[in-house]
């Protein structure tokens, strides 16, 4: 069995892992390796051939593969080593057990960055009743089949869930000649970004049925119809208003689950809300040598946020490996009124740098004020024209504010007008 020693190991060569590894190397880490189970780097970006990536970081609209390529080149020129076709199976104290093309491999590290991304929720997670015909796909699988393998997956399509992948696939399928009959959303508001509704549904005349769900699936070999019906305010189906929609394809775009099986083997503390690790602003988990970033930490809407957050994780992992990561008292950052979660969940009051708190609101609203308080005193606030759960929000705490913390902080929001 082979053993590799490195300063910083990174699991996952998606945008998060690539940015973290490059930043670790640029911060001075000696040997930095990325362990990636796929046969190529890029993660989910490989199949995102639509434009819309990198507007914030590069100021231009790139496709997923173009965005990934820029980070691959940066990581490569920084001297990051990439182990493809290698899956990290188990996290021990300062060691990963991996399975690669040549068998088992042990990777001993000074610091580790978890960047495993997330996977999609499936029909089994939703427990939709009905028969079990072919023609039912998660939206990301459909995207891979069409964009990577060039398959045609169906002609008459219903999409359950208004997440970003579902809306992007509604447009993709329409461009491929399919008829997308409806996007059906259980919530009374959009789950994904407004820009995707405009560009992918409205521009193509695809109806969005809010407060609706799929209650039955029919078909023997191939899907022949789904039954759709409205839901009441408690999200219970109103069955006397159900309608059968003939279709041969159902796409599910009903949420993503951070891939934390590896983190669990290392007994990393996970948040029941994000289902990612509990971290401080260094992206440091409950195991001080282990850092987490990207979609495995919390599901991101924009890759630009992933790259920024992951560069911080990589830099701090390099500092930790070199024994240079500052330490000070840490205080909880908790969600208050109208907020679903805050990431990071802890803030170390070191005062070395400003701290960005990322969070999502529970319901959409207009003229929203978001604020961060400590002991009832406002630390920072911002007015937003519009907020929605599909869009990640942020507040920045200045260095001075961080240095002055002496207790927990809370993020809350107040809508001038509720839109749900
Ligand atoms: C369909 C879709 C469309 C999107 N469209 C846009 C858009 O238009 N604009 C935008 O800005 N953002 C978009 N996003 C969001 C953005 O792409 C993601 O937030 C980002 O790619 C997440 O990066 P990541 O590195 O955390 O995860 P991923 O890209 O999923 O990478 C994770 C990597 O980890 C590897 N891995 C997992 N477990 C292991 C293991 N145990 N061992 C080894 N390797 C492992 C995986 O193989 C994968 O390569 C989209 C996302 C999706 C899913």
Structural write-up:
With 420 residues, the chain is α/β, with parallel strands linked by helices. Helices cover 21% and strands 36% of the residues. It has helices at 15-26, 64-78, 123-126, 139-147, 164-175, 194-201, 261-265, 303-321, 399-403, and strands at residues 2-11, 32-35, 51-53, 62-63, 81-83, 87-91, 95-100, 103-114, 118-120, 136-138, 156-160, 179-184, 208-209, 212-219, 223-230, 243-246, 249-252, 256-258, 290-292, 330-335, 339-343, 346-348, 355-361, 365-374, 377-387, 393-397, 409-418. Strand 1, helix 1 and strand 2 (32-35) form a beta-alpha-beta unit. Helix 1 packs parallel to helix 2, helix 4 runs parallel beside helix 5 and helix 5 (164-175) runs parallel beside helix 6 (194-201). The model has no long low-confidence stretch (mean pLDDT 96). The structure holds flavin-adenine dinucleotide. Residues 11-17, 35-38, 43-45, 48, 50, 52-53, 87-88, 115-117, 140, 143, 164-165, 168, 259, 262, 294-296, 300, 302-304, 306 line the site of flavin-adenine dinucleotide. Residues 11-17, 35-38, 43-45, 48, 50, 52-53, 87-88, 115-117, 140, 143, 164-165, 168, 259, 262, 294-296, 300, 302-304, 306 line the site of flavin-adenine dinucleotide (FAD).
- The portion of residues forming beta strands comes to 35-45%
Gyration radius, rounded: 22 Å
Q: What is the CATH class name of the largest domain?
A: Alpha Beta
The CATH homologous superfamily of the largest domain: FAD/NAD(P)-binding domain
Please report the total strand number as a whole number.
27
**Count of helical regions:** 9
Domain module count: 3
Uncertain stretches:
none
Gross morphology is globular
From the 3D coordinates, which CATH architecture of the largest domain would you assign? Answer: 3-Layer(bba) Sandwich
- Note the main sheet: 7 strands, mixed
Range of helix content: 10-25%
Mean pLDDT reading: 96
Terminal residue distance: 57 Å
CATH topology label of the largest domain? FAD/NAD(P)-binding domain
Structural class: alpha/beta
Ions, cofactors, ligands: which are bound? flavin-adenine dinucleotide
């Amino acid at each position: 069995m082979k053993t590799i020693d490195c300063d910083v190991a990174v699991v996952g060569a998606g945008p998060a892992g690539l940015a973290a590894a490059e930043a670790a190397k640029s911060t001075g880490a000696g040997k930095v390796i990325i362990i990636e189970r796929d046969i190529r780097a890029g993660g989910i970006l490989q199949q995102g051939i639509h434009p819309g990536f990198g507007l914030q970081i590069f100021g231009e609209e790139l496709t997923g593969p173009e965005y990934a390529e820029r980070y691959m080149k940066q990581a490569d020129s920084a001297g990051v080593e990439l182990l493809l076709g290698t899956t990290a199976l188990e996290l021990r104290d300062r060691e990963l057990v991996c399975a690669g093309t040549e068998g088992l491999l042990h990777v001993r590290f000074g610091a580790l960055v978890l960047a495993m991304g997330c996977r999609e929720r499936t029909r089994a997670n939703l427990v939709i009743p009905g028969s079990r015909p072919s023609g039912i796909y998660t939206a990301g699988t459909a995207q891979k089949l069409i964009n990577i393998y060039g398959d045609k997956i169906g002609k008459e399509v219903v999409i359950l869930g208004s997440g970003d992948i579902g809306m992007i696939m509604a447009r993709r399928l329409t461009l491929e000649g399919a008829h997308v009959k409806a996007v059906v959303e259980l919530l009374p508001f959009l789950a994904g970004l407004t820009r995707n509704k405009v560009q992918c549904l409205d521009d193509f005349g695809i109806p969005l049925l809010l407060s609706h769900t799929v209650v039955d699936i029919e078909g023997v070999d191939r899907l022949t119809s789904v039954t759709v019906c409205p839901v009441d305010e408690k999200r219970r189906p109103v069955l006397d208003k159900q309608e059968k929609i003939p279709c041969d394809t159902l796409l599910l775009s009903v949420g993503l689950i951070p891939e934390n099986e590896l983190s669990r083997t290392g007994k990393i503390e996970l948040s029941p809300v994000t289902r990612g690790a509990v971290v401080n602003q260094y992206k440091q988990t409950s195991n001080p040598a282990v850092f987490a970033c990207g979609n495995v930490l919390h599901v991101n809407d924009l890759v630009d946020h992933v790259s920024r957050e992951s560069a911080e994780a990589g830099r701090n992992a390099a500092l930790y490996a070199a024994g240079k990561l500052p330490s000070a008292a840490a205080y909880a950052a908790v969600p208050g009124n109208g907020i679903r979660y805050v990431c990071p969940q802890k803030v170390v009051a070191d005062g070395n740098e400003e701290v960005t708190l990322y969070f999502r609101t529970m319901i959409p609203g207009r003229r929203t004020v978001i604020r961060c308080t400590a002991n009832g005193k406002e630390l920072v606030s911002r007015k937003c024209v519009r907020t929605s759960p599909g869009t990640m929000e942020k507040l920045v705490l200045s260095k001075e504010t961080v240095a002055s913390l002496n207790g927990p902080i809370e993020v809350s929001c107040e809508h001038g007008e509720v839109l749900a």
